[in-house]
Amino acid sequence: MFAHRQFQVTVADDMPNCANRMAAFVCATQMAQRLDLSRPYINGLESENILQRPPKGYLLGASIIAYIGASAACATTITTGNRNQ
Prior knowledge:
This protein is mainly α. The protein has a domain at 23-79. The protein contains four helices and two strands. It has a two-stranded antiparallel sheet with strand order 1-2. Helix 2 (28-35) crosses helix 3. The protein starts with 14 loop residues before the first helix and ends in a 6-residue tail after the last helix.
């Protein structure tokens, strides 16, 4: 009934470089560009404790994950909110 298909996944040679980029520290302007947001919005996310900025700058990978997590939580709250209000 179903044809068996075989495929192969190839990992790019630059995967360690990708991991290094995600562990890099970036400034607020670079973080805003990466997330396609404005710099003042990044500052607002920091004041709401969604993003943390140590003295070196924002940790790229962790900051992206924190932003996506906060966005997903906000979207869930909006879609499951009380409709009787």
